[in-house]
Amino acid sequence: MQANMTKFDSLKTRNIFAQCAAGIVAGFLNLLFCSAAIELKLPLFMDTLFTVTASCFGWACGIIAAVASHIIGFLSNGYSFPKDIPNLLYFFCSLTIVAGVRIVLFRKPLNDGRANPFNMLFLSIVFAFIISLEGGLFYVMLVQSNRVSANIIGNRAVSSLIYTFVTKNIPMLVASPLASIPVNLVDKTLAVFGGYGIFALLKKTLFQQKSRSENLAENSAAHDMMDEQKKKGGG
Description:
This protein has seven helices and no strands. By secondary structure, the protein is mainly alpha-helical. The longest helix has 63 residues.
């Protein structure tokens, strides 16, 4: 009994370490894809694709991916502690992604991680509106606190829409979330379907490797038993 508990604790610890490592890698990949979208002038954020993938593996993996994404982005943009900490407000948008994936796609016995296109589409739309609201409010807060310029935002399509709305006398508090919705509808749909697709592919690959390793171990054990029996029979 004690041996089984020790083995379980060991596997649990290894799982946590694996989720931590995967989360950090996902954070780097988020930054890489986000930077690529900016360089290619794509009208997308592309900063939560691997947060979705990481969240599919577990709460810890998803949260670590979110933390890593924002800390790495914070440092790479030349921000400094504690002066520029308000710029980390967008971290809460990533937490929304983690919570949504875990609750909608992996809540037992509702789905348990099985791909359901309708749930995934529903989640994409919910993300688009909630994150547009969150991100828009954070942007207004940062502008009003002089943390960012009113004409600086991480996406040109959103920035131009905000400018258009403001010139039509729509308040910034309304213009900022509203301008983000069209981009987020596309961006979050790609993030949910693409992120889950990457998870499914990785899961399949890891399962095949695990099965292959288990088969090799079983065959090796069988050969050892046969050799032992031959030795006994010969003796």
